[in-house]
Specification:
- There is one protein chain.
- This protein has two domains: about 10-335, ABC transporter transmembrane region fold (Up-down Bundle), CATH 1.20.1560.10; about 355-560, P-loop containing nucleotide triphosphate hydrolases (Rossmann fold, 3-Layer(aba) Sandwich), CATH 3.40.50.
- It is elongated.
- The chain has helices at about 15-20, 20-40, 45-55, 60-65, 70-120, 125-130, 130-175, 175-185, 185-225, 225-230, 235-285, 290-335, 395-400, 425-430, 445-450, 460-465, 470-475, 495-505, 525-540; strands spanning about 355-360, 370-380, 385, 410-415, 415-420, 430-435, 510-515, 540-545, 560.
- It has about 575 residues and is of the alpha/beta class.
- It is built from 19 helices and nine strands.
- It binds adenosine-5'-diphosphate and magnesium ion.
- Adenosine-5'-diphosphate binds near residues 390, 391 and 395.
Length: about 575
């Protein structure tokens, strides 16, 4: 029934997370097998009582050697044996649940970290296409589903298959005809499993994707709650969320309906099998082929035989369901859009600061080039100002210098070497950037300035703050540099965020400084201040300033005008 390998396809690449936990999982599985053996023994005390205490069958040789036993003693013995089996089973179940549960948690933690690390390494091309809320929901809600099922299948398949075989062997030994009759249900169940598996997985995939979409939508709207309130968009956003939630609910209910039909059908098939055995068994007792005690054992076995069958069928439905989550994890883990180190990559030569573009062509989509055949030399130690209209590709050019993207054609060079032959870390550690949207993380102003140089001392932070005119406003805050800025720096003005980003770049201690519209959004007086500090920050550095305004050209050694790529 489990031979259909496609059930496991969504999990294939996830085995590496289970492997480190093989020891506790193996012990837990062995314990589960022991529990199965105990379950096999469970009905036999009943037979002892029925056939030998109530009935007048002679005691089996291993018991009669103890001596003659009264019916009450036999009943007591049977009861004691039953209790002992349950008590032992309880201890084993506890240990097994603990071991496998703890292993499952560690597997989940490993998967979460691996997803996170992989996402940080994936190229911006990947992130440009995916919504961060959906990616977070993959880490936080899809991981636990897969983690549970990985462990559960381990814990279910082996003991269940073993107990199935164990009981079959015993049943065959007791009565071949009854055993074969009991097996008649299996082909029917297999057909049911195959029919419903695909539908369960498809329905669940839709649910997972819709939940991912909801997470993305909620994250985005809440992050921009200012804009929503400013434009009085609450009703529209509520409506959009409610509509999408309703769609997710509809998908979930559909998935539920498919699943809910699953177990009753399986139970019905199993009940039919049980009925068949009852009829055949009674006939056999009447003809004297078997005793009443044996029929009782067979009927008890039957219900325990059907337990593993039921749990295996249920597992296939759980696997199908979590398979949707498994796919969502694999999509991320298997994504290989990487800007990564070539195997032969070397660190950039020390002190290397000249940069160049050699006939570079680049586009975010292959058919829409943003930069076409662009060549540009950026001389070490000089300040270059690139001026061009909005949309000309200036920010894109800076991304290429940082190797956030690789060009489609041509070469980007540092110190005469193709960036792709240098290690990413060495290239980026030589560059400090002030991006167009000065991203600020929650934390203090000092934390934000230290972002690119986490070991900088307080004095160094303050020095950078003075250069970038941060101190002008921190000196007015009661907490100074320790002021907490809120998510995305929401408690700061745009100009303040920009200056913090500049201070961060100044502190980075990099020989190359890339500045994307460093003075936009500043008043004339602050602009003059920033330009003054830029001049001092530029000393001894290679600086590239891009701007849509010519004003900054004053600080440059050379000015290049960019026009439509
Ligand atoms: N991440 C992106 N994905 C797709 N297209 C982009 C992306 N970033 C920028 N673009 C497009 O590339 C072009 C150049 O953008 P950009 O380099 O930001 O221009 P500039 O900085 O000169 O104003 C624009 O047409 C813009 O729409
Ligand atoms: Mg730009």
């Amino acid at each position: 029934m489990k031979s259909d390998s496609r059930i496991f396809a969504p999990y294939r690449g996830l085995g590496r997370f289970v492997r480190p936990e093989w020891a506790p999982l193996t012990v837990a599985t062995v314990l589960a097998v022991v529990q199965t053996v105990l379950a096999l023994a469970a009905p036999w005390p009943l037979k002892l009582a029925v056939d030998h205490a109530i009935g007048d069958q002679p005691l089996p040789p291993w018991l009669s050697s103890v001596g003659p036993l009264s019916p009450h003693a036999i009943a007591l013995l049977a009861a004691g044996a039953g209790i002992a089996l349950v008590a032992l089973g309880g201890v084993i179940r506890y240990a097994g649940t603990y071991l496998s549960g703890a292993a499952s948690e560690r597997i989940g933690a490993a998967m979460r970290s691996a997803m996170f690390e992989h996402l940080l390494r994936l190229s911006l091309r990947f992130h440009d296409r995916h919504r961060s809320g959906d990616l977070v929901s993959r880490i936080l809600s899809d991981v636990p589903r897969v983690q549970d099922v990985l462990v559960a299948s381990f814990q279910t398949v082996i003991p269940d298959v073993m107990s199935l075989f164990g009981m079959l062997v015993v049943l065959l030994a007791i009565d071949v005809e009854l055993a074969l009759a009991a097996l008649a249900v299996i082909p029917l169940l297999a057909v049911q499993v195959m029919l419903s598996r695909k539908r369960i997985k498809a329905a669940e995939r839709e649910v997972r994707d819709r939940h991912g979409g909801l997470a993305a939508q909620a994250t985005e709207v809440l992050r921009h709650v200012r804009a929503v309130q400013a434009f009085a968009r609450e009703d529209e956003e509520n409506h959009r969320f409610r509509t999408d939630t309703a769609a997710a609910t509809h998908a979930a209910v559909t998935a539920l309906a498919v699943q809910a039909r699953y177990s009753p059908f399986a139970d019905l098939i199993l009940a039919a099998g049980g009925g068949l055995i009852l009829v055949l068994g009674v006939a056999k007792v009447l003809t004297g082929d078997i005793t009443v005690g044996v029929l009782l054992v067979i009927l008890t076995y039957l219900s325990s035989l059907y337990d593993p069958i039921r749990s295996l069928t249920r597992l296939s439905s759980v696997l199908a369901k979590a398979g949707a989550s498994g796919e969502r994890l694999q999509e991320v883990l298997a994504a290989d859009e990487m800007v990564s180190d070539a195997p032969s990559a070397l660190p950039a030569p020390p002190g290397a600061t000249s940069l160049a573009l050699d006939r570079v062509t680049f586009g975010y989509h292959a058919d829409v080039p943003v930069l076409r055949d662009l060549s540009l030399d950026i001389v070490a130690g000089q300040t270059l100002c690139i001026v061009g209209p909005t949309g000309a590709g200036k920010s894109t050019l800076l991304s290429l210098l940082l190797r956030l993207y690789d060009p489609i054609g041509g070469v980007v060079k540092m110190a005469g070497r193709d960036l792709r032959q240098l290690t990413l870390r060495s290239v980026r550690s030589r560059i400090a950037v002030v991006p167009q949207d000065a991203w600020i993380l929650d934390g203090t102003i000092a934390d934000n300035i230290r972002f690119g140089h986490s070991t900088a001392t307080d004095d160094e932070v303050r020095l950078a703050g003075r250069v970038a005119l941060v101190e002008e406003f921190t000196s007015r805050f009661p907490d100074g540099y320790d002021t907490v800025v809120g998510e995305s720096g929401s408690r700061l003005s745009g100009g303040q965020r920009r200056r913090i980003a500049l201070a961060r770049a100044v502190l980075r201690d990099a020989r190359v400084l890339l500045l994307d519209e460093p003075t936009s959004g500043l008043d004339a007086e602050s602009e003059a201040g920033v330009m003054r500090s830029l001049r001092s920050a530029a000393a001894g550095r290679t600086v590239v300033i891009v701007s849509h305004r010519l004003g900054l050209a004053a600080v440059a050694d050379r000015v290049v005008v960019m026009q439509g790529g």
